[in-house]
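Subject: Interface between my chains keeps coming out wrong

I've been trying for a while to get a sensible model of this assembly. When I model each chain on its own everything looks fine, but I need the whole thing in one frame so I can look at the contacts. Pasting all components below, labels as-is. Any help appreciated, I'm running out of ideas.
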Amino acid sequence: MLAGVDMSFITYLLNGISLGSVYSIIALGYTMVYGIAKMLNFAHGDVIMVGGYIIFTIMSTLGLNPILGVLIAIILCTLLGMTIERIAYKPLRRAPSLAVLITAIGVSYLLQNLALLIFGAEAKSFTSVIPVKPLSLAGGRLSISGETLVTIPLCILIMTSLTIFIKKSKIGRGMVAVSEDKDAAVLMGINVNKTIAITFAIGSALAAVASALMFSTYTNLSSTSGAMPGIKAFVAAVFGGIGSIPGAMIGGILLGVIEILSRAYISTQLADAIVFLILIIVLLVKPTGILGKKIQEKV
Amino acid sequence: MKNQVLNLKTRVMNINKSTRSNAVTIGGILIAYVVCTALINSGNMSNLLRNLLVAMCYYSIMAVSLNLTVGILGQLSLGHAGFMCIGAFTGAFFSKITVNTINNTFIRFTLAILIGAVAAGLFGIFIGVVVLRLKGDYLAIVTLAFGEIIKNVLNVFYIGYDSKGIHFSMKDTASLNLEEGGMVVVKGAQGISGTPRNSTFTIGVILLIITYLIIVNLVNSRSGRAIMAIRDNHIAAESVGIDITKYKILAFSISAALAGVAGVLYSHNIATVQSTKFGYNTSILILVFVVLGGMGNLRGSIIAAIILTVLPEYLRFMQDYRMLIYAIVLIVMMIFNWGPACINWRKNHSLKDLTKKLMKAKKEA
Amino acid sequence: MKKRIFALLMVLSMIMLSLAACGSKEEKPDDGKKDQKEQVNDKVDDKKDTDAPKFYIGGIGPITGGAAVYGQHVMNAAKIAVDEINAAGGINGYQIEFRFEDDVHDPEKAVNAYNTLKDWGMQILMGTVTSNPGNAVKEETYADNMFMLTPSGSAPEVVQYDNAFQVCFSDPNQGMASAIYVANKNLAKKVAVIYNSSDVYSTGIYEKFAEEAKNQNIEIVAAEAFTDDSDTDFTVQIQKAKDNGAELVFLPIYYEEATLILTQAAAVDYKPLFFGCDGLDGILGVENFDTSLAEGVLLLTPFAADAADERTQKFVADYKAAHDGTIPNQFAADAYDAIYIIKAAIEESGVTPDMSISDICDGMKEAMTKISVDGLTGAGMTWTSSGLVNKDPMAVVIKDGQYVSAD
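Reply #2:
Try treating it as a single job with all components included. I did that and got this:
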């Protein structure tokens, strides 16, 4: 009996990690843009939705190779991200950050309604792009899906390469400089506009990768399917300390695990409320998130 | 420092100007009220617009009250709709159970408004105490979290009453164990329906003016100056002996109570209220009003609330493209209003400038 | 300065808006109609340009936002029915004008949509598509005494007043029928329910099902909820059903979530009998869905898109032709029927377009209790003055990727 309880706990834990890994990969894009451009890009979730539709069109409607679909989605989403940045966010570079936040919401509405017009309101069923078989453990009583097996290592890979990129490369260090002090960065000869554009490009490319993984795990695709994961990933990014790249990953996994465990052991109806309650408690104990830096304010 | 002293000086000099500006706003509301009433009475107003008038009032109240938190206190809140939700539910609940006992509509509705305001205000104090030590985006996310908690919890509320009193459950209607003839007042996802429809345009306008006066008086009082000092530099404010926590909670709870009033107005306007209405989408919509109208600018909030309430309705002729156009208009308005390049362009092409130039040209001629 | 110009700008646009409002209102109804016709791009014959009076039927439902798919099906199907009736000479010789307005699945917007339609001249309301908006709009129609027929707003409260009628089954009705069906066919003794606690339709069916299950000696071993905000991961709900040994999983939800539940249940090798209501109809039409996962799913629905009768086939073919090959779901069928029910009620009562809204309503609600309509969603549908429909639910099972009658 005890073994049975343990087994279902482990199953829930694995499910939580699987959900959390999806949140992580979305949160990476969120936190990247926030860390450098200091803006909450509420349209990030909708870029993921667009990525999903691009892969779906190439793979299921045109019947081409899924890998090709993901690659094209990465390219198109990058272009989309840069276009959005150029048209909607760049004119507001010196405006208050709230103004950009609202514009981002406008972009989010725009993408959702465009997708509704182009692809229709009918939900589509996404075919997994990940050809990995589920891993069976403990004599078949436990199984980890292929999607989770791919998502977590990929998440770690992206996390480390992003960290190295930012620490070591010239562009990466330029990003750090822009995030710390825009004006000083200009004086040091850094092209702020170019740096921010590159940040958006990377963020949107990550969104395309996230869409491939998310829709492979949760196969329902409609024009609003990016909105809620976007918000949850935003919560995850704050959870881990917004702006911190390892924080986004830890925050994402934790959020997924908490969500699944509270659904399993407390209430399925109130799971969302419990997740948010735990978030509040964590932030009260650590006001800048798990890995967030404490900023000293000077007068 | 010198700058601040100068700033203070201009502020003192401008007191008359601010009184004048308030008179203009209230006068504007009153003129709009008179015009609208005349149009209604002469039968010249469309059903749509007539029905939207109350909505404009409660969204304006929401915008003005959020402006207190965002523009005047300088704290980003993404859960303002949560307070509206509290007000809407408590007010509707009260009206629904007393509809047969208190026959005087005016007294009942006034009580409902007060109850909604107090309930939302208490929540505001509670949340304020918990969260106001956080800052910036962390505060924003916690307010968002509170809004979502309120929404999710109310979504599973089942409350009914019969001769034995009030029954409560968080599972389903059956577990209320009501006796025959008992009434289910709050019904989970269906919320409260059949609330008496007591909200009228007149009441809405009166509440809007009261809200406006409350906030304007607060801003121009000693407390208001303390609140703005916290916004401009909280460390400096603390060092001159301003009790930051007290003033933050004061502003936050007043803002919440006023949102509660708007909630009562909402639930008594369309007769049915569900908690799912008050998620982050509505909170963000209110924030859009505030940012578009100008942070700290109450009149701007009201105007933005009115425009953005009416706009999607008058885009209906676009059919499927309606929300798409709405999104584009929103982006364009934001860039036009806040983009530094646009602000410069407007400065160079303003009407005042144009008239000046014309005058000059005339003189020269 | 900046603020002042902003204010000025706002006031200017306000004035423009109100002018537009007045303008459109003062136009003669005829002009309005022409505009409408151009936008909707209806296939209308030339007869319409004559000044003969017409019936103005309005529809309300979500055509944008998360629930858009339901409203769009209703709108499209109603237009097909209207075009058919108009082509066949109208109702008692009067043509129909139909206009559909968006409510984004929000009660507040639904009331706005209602008033927009009223300004347009609506005499009869075919709406609303969903229940919560319906609860708000019913107060308006009751106050105006306007006839209201909801195709798919299934909460019993929507038809609480005497001017409102339903085409679909009410939620408690479906919950009860489901429990009785499970018991009568002896499908299972241990049942799990997965329902959407933020949805009125889903909770309404679940509550009545749970109540009736007690009477029928069915044990509910797990009743697990999800919400609109977390409707992607169902692993916990499925695991609980599995751990508690449920032989049947009752899904009183819509088909989008059901595809995910079926996929995720298959991933953990859990194969109980899945049983659903009319919300599951449409599951085979989800683009790219692996229908082998839905094999053996039972659903109690009045409509299945591949029924053999001629009318259903013609409707499905017309719908597919007009809308890119999309297969209509039960919302579409309900709406198609709704227009024909309105036609039958008008013919029975003999009301004419020149009568007042209230007189039309009085005539039609009287007629509703007398008529019997054969539609796509049931043969011999009749109504009581309570507004609820009497028709037989039909059990359908999915076999080889097709809906097949289960009886």
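Reply #3:
Confirming on my end. The longest strand of chain A covers residues 135-137.
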